[in-house]
């Protein structure tokens, strides 16, 4: 179950699935999170019939609209972003986005009795809005998953980070992993690694 929560807390990371509970999304930020999980629920219910490619295509617009993937990609590589060429920056955003979507398509393959509930929201330290949610596995206790939303360049609220147990930042975990690869082997190796992981999920024999 920690693996389930860890992925949600990203792609950009679960092996069991959930069903979205009836929403109490009365505020814009909470409504955004609820809408995303409604899309996930529909995809999971059709998951085995859709297969990986079908799930990817169905989730791509929802993931891209809900998460500020370009900003998340930029933050995930830290200072290496400003040192990268324009071509590398564009490639990073594309590879990171494809990897994120593929992870959802690979992991969220079917409904398995989990319940996801959107709760309240509060101002986040450092700016933005934190939407509080819980994931309750079938026959188990709820897991806390909080979503940080901030306005993008157009002023629209989008998810920029997810926190497991209200404290473990998915984006901070990504940053530690990505910057370590860049420090050891450079940006091209990170880009290649992301593409290889995406292709591995695409070629997986899993449903």
Layout of secondary structure:
Elements lengths: L1 H7 L9 E3 L7 H18 L1 H20 L2 H8 L3 H4 L2 H22 L6 E10 L5 E8 L6 E9 L5 E8 L3 E2 H16 L1 H17 L4
Parallel strand pairs: 1-2
Antiparallel strand pairs: 2-3, 3-4, 4-5, 5-6
Helix pairs in contact: 2-3, 3-6, 4-6, 6-8, 7-8
Structural notes for this entry:
The chain is of the alpha+beta class. It has one domain (2-203): Roll (Nuclear Transport Factor 2, Chain: A). It has helices at 2-8, 28-45, 47-66, 69-76, 80-83, 86-107, 170-185, 187-203, and strands at 18-20, 114-123, 129-136, 143-151, 157-164, 168-169. The protein has a six-stranded mixed beta sheet. Strand 5 and strand 6 form a beta hairpin. Helix 2 runs antiparallel to helix 3 (47-66), helix 3 (47-66) packs antiparallel against helix 6 and helix 7 (170-185) crosses helix 8 (187-203).
């Amino acid at each position: 179950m920690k693996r389930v929560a860890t992925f949600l807390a990203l792609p950009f990371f679960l092996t069991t699935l959930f069903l979205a509970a009836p929403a109490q999304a009365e505020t814009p930020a909470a409504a955004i999170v609820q809408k995303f999980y409604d899309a996930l629920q529909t995809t999971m219910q059709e998951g085995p019939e859709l297969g990986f490619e079908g799930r990817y295509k169905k989730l791509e617009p929802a993931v891209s609209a809900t998460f500020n993937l370009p900003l998340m990609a930029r933050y995930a590589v830290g200072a290496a972003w400003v040192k990268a060429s324009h071509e590398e920056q564009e490639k990073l955003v594309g590879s990171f986005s494809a990897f994120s979507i593929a992870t959802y398509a690979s992991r969220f393959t079917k409904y398995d009795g989990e319940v996801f509930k959107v709760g309240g929201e509060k101002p986040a330290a450092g700016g933005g809005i934190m939407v509080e949610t819980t994931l309750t596995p079938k026959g188990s206790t709820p897991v806390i998953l909080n979503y940080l939303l901030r306005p993008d360049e157009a002023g629209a609220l989008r998810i920029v980070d997810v926190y497991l147990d209200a404290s473990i930042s998915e984006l901070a975990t990504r940053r530690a992993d990505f910057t370590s690869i860049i420090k050891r082997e450079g940006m091209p190796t990170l880009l290649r690694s992301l593409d290889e992981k995406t292709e591995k999920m695409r070629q997986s024999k899993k449903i």
